Amino acid sequence: MRRxxxxxxxxxxxxxxxxxxxxxxxxxxxxxxxRVLADPGVDSGVADDCRRALAQAWPAMVAEVWPxxxxxxRFEIRLMTTAGFRALHRDRIADWGVGLAAGDRxxxxxxxxxxxxxxxxxxxxxxxxxxLLHQALPGVAGVPAWxxxxxxxxxxxxxxxxxxxxxxxxxxxxxxxxxxxxxxxDARRADQAYRTGLLAVQSLRAWHGHDAVPRLVxxxxxxxxxxxxxxxxxxxxxxxxxxxFAGSVRLRFGWLVAATRWPTFFVLLAAAAAVGIVAxxxxxRRRFAAxxxxxxxxxxxxxxxx
Length: 306
What we know:
The chain has twelve helices and four strands, in the order H-H-E-H-E-H-E-E-H-H-H-H-H-H-H-H. It is α/β, with parallel strands linked by helices and 306 residues long. Helix 3 runs parallel beside helix 5 and helix 7 crosses helix 8. The longest helix is centred in the C-terminal third of the chain and has 32 residues.
């Protein structure tokens, strides 16, 4: 009897295993995938901050950029002084650049990575996102620069709401089509391009779901074509997404652009002054009317006894 029960139990376990869904592989661990090295002269406290920030951002980065079971990315990030960074990359990057990434390594100029709410830790995470994307999409055609840079901006936490506002106030938002293959060399225009890419990635999530990025990466990796992946995820041609993005920016922020142009600004200022003057005159009339209703009568003076 006992032998029969044991056989039945084993049969049930085998049946359950056959019907159970396959378990997904565990996410790759940070310490098994990334090495962060600091050159001589780099402040040890800054280096520790960079390692800690990258370790904290790692789960979100992997969830977005590495939807690949059973595979493990490997790359190295080198933290450098300005002198060392410029000596190594003088001819490969614009003067304003403070980070550079390839497939399996990245370099960060920690001394010039400060300012505007940004830190060396932000730049380290930013370049790590580039490394992940390079390894997740090897040989994939048509990956736009705005997607690479916008996603790196987003996941590194460099974005602030004032960045979007300042992008709009700077003037015309760059067309995504002009940011497909690269970014401008001019520092000011490049800054606009980075913020535009960030806004485009955020719009991608807002319109097509919070998981739009990992679905896009998965489809692009499978088909070897980012444009085909955009068609699958968005249901339209990439050009349609670019047009919708441009229209969305005009609709959401057009009033802000118009309000800050000089002629419009002075018209609004004059209108506000006129409204203030009218309101003040009405207030003064009410006060004068109240004084008329309660006019002061001269005091009665009693004659003194002689």
